[in-house]
Specification:
By secondary structure, the protein is an alpha+beta fold. The protein is about 15% helix and about 35% strand. Strands 1-8-5-2-3 form a five-stranded mixed beta sheet, with no helix packed on it. The chain has a five-stranded mixed beta sheet with strand order 4-10-9-6-7, covered by helices on one side. A five-stranded mixed barrel has the order 11-12-13-15-14.
């Protein structure tokens, strides 16, 4: 009987110790309950935004990640100023994580993870999620641009476990156009980063757009006709073959993606 009691006490103490370790991390683990008096979240401005307030959340985006080293969805469109709750589900049997950042910052961090595979990192833009568990991040995208979310665990990032977040400037005139004011996208990016094109074909089901375009300066690409992915399929709403547009395109893991689009004036 004494051995049984001692074993039970040992299990309780072990569980409590594990719990203390979990409680020390904000938005960095699964669905464990945090204590009411958790340390306050430090909000630090990053190039890709700032930690958000739960009261300001405008929508929740469900993201699934698994052992196929892929996210679903792997393309997310956000409006500048929007606060989003990401609910991240790990459907695999391996540990995975969801880390928001710039491509350069994530690549740098991924290299460190290879060099120091046992390092623990904990920031409000990271969720480290155990198999079968769910993590959460609340983030305010207060800067326009094209960003990444990725799993930086050694080998996972290198296997292509990366997605893209495109944050459209608050008053950008987008092709499906609810705002016809002067586009902030031209202010948020260098003026010569915008290219001109003519819509040749639209594939809404695949989220692709065929453009006959002029030079694309930021890609060092000459004029030609080619197929682009779109960061947000809503870009295609209201477009038709023959429309003249201005757009920004970036290189992606699968080709080229249009991240900003305007009707030509």
């Amino acid at each position: 009987m004494t051995d049984v009691r001692n074993n039970k006490r040992t299990l309780i103490l072990a569980a409590a110790a594990a719990g203390l370790g979990l409680y020390g991390r904000v938005h960095a683990h699964g669905n464990e309950h945090h204590p009411k008096k958790a340390s306050p979240l430090v909000r630090e401005q990053k190039d890709w935004g700032i930690a958000g307030d739960a009261k300001a959340v405008g929508r929740t985006i469900e993201v699934r990640m698994g052992d196929n080293m892929r996210f679903e969805p792997d393309r997310i469109a956000v409006q500048e100023g929007e606060t989003v709750r990401f609910r991240i589900h790990n459907t695999g049997r391996l540990m995975h994580e969801f880390v928001i950042g710039t491509p350069a910052e994530n690549a740098k961090h991924a290299e460190l993870m290879i060099k120091f595979p046992n390092m623990e990192h904990d920031e409000p833009y990271m969720a480290h999620v155990a198999p079968g568990k769910t993590g959460e991040i609340i983030w305010t995208f207060n800067r326009a641009g094209s960003f990444e979310f990725a799993c930086l665990i050694a080998g996972h990032y290198q296997a292509g476990m990366v997605g893209r977040i495109v944050v459209t400037a608050a008053n950008a005139h987008r092709a499906h156009g609810h705002d016809h004011s002067q586009p902030a996208s031209a202010q948020a990016t260098a003026p010569d980063s915008m290219a001109s094109g003519e819509v040749r074909r639209i594939d809404s089901s695949a989220g692709k757009l065929t453009l006959r375009h002029g030079e694309i300066p930021n890609l060092d690409m000459p004029p030609m006709t080619m197929v682009f992915e779109v960061a947000d399929r809503a870009f295609l709403n209201g477009l038709k073959p023959g429309d003249k547009i201005r757009f920004r395109a970036e290189k992606s893991a699968t080709g080229f993606v249009v991240t900003v689009i305007e009707q030509a004036r």
